[in-house]
Amino acid sequence: MTTHTEFAPAKINLSLRVGPLQGDGYHSIDSLVTFADFGDVLTFVPADKLQLEIVGPFAGELPVHDNNLILQAARALPQTTGILKGARIQLTKNLPIASGIGGGSADAAATLRGLNRLWDCQLKVSKLATIGASFGSDIPACLHGGWLQMRGRGEQIENLPPRPSFAALLVNPGFAVSTAEVFGRFDQMPASDPSSATEHQNDLSQAAISLCPQIADVLQAFSEICEGADRQFMCGSGATCLAGFSSQNNARKAARDLQDQHPTWWVQPVTIGQIPPQ
Ligand code: C5P
After folding, report:
1. Which of 11, 40, 93, 107 does the annotation list as catalytic?
2. 127-160 per-position pLDDT tens digit
């Protein structure tokens, strides 16, 4: 039987500038995005009905629910194509839930890609991105992959030439953070000075830290423990943070030191920016 496998890599906002709240309830953003070589894995097998099974390290924190983004994606495709078929979908959940690295959006994008192939819908990436944008702002970026600039509420994608990849650690202190709540808190905070923006500026950092102070502990640990970390910032709406290194060896050594001192944290060595566009 045909089995399609799709990789759903972690999305990394290398910078994230956030504008004011718009009339549609979303914020305009401007973000440089690429992907890690680590993520969830989905398999798709033909079946009579739609079925979803979740396994893997974070499966316990993500019960199969009707509003799961994977099932939303699977239901959205027939609405556009009229192709009504079933599929048995298995998600191996390797990424922490609600962690600012786009796990749910990556899963939805992988589902649109996987079912487009399994059901032979023959939709282009741009069409899949339009479908995905209707139920998740980060889904178009996850469909395009590679390196890109993301604008609007996330649906405007400018594909960029690849930039040098780099070794990094992704670290999550073990607290789920709601994206909607972080944006809500952002609206209550004083506006930042745009002229003082740094290369890896994330405008959501202060809002996320005020909701989840453990993010500041991770950033503090980066500066205290991670010798040779050349860049450090919070990812997306948090709580995952990234430390970049000049070599995989330095990243792996820092990972061991961090994990020794913080055994409950999720610490994952990765390469950023190496995965080609989809
Ligand atoms: O689109 P998505 O469902 O991932 O967004 C989750 C929440 O994050 C939205 O309901 C909205 O409150 C907030 N959001 C926003 N502006 C964006 C993206 C998301 O305010 N550009």
Report:
1. 11
2. 999 999 999 999 999 999 999 999 999 999 999 9
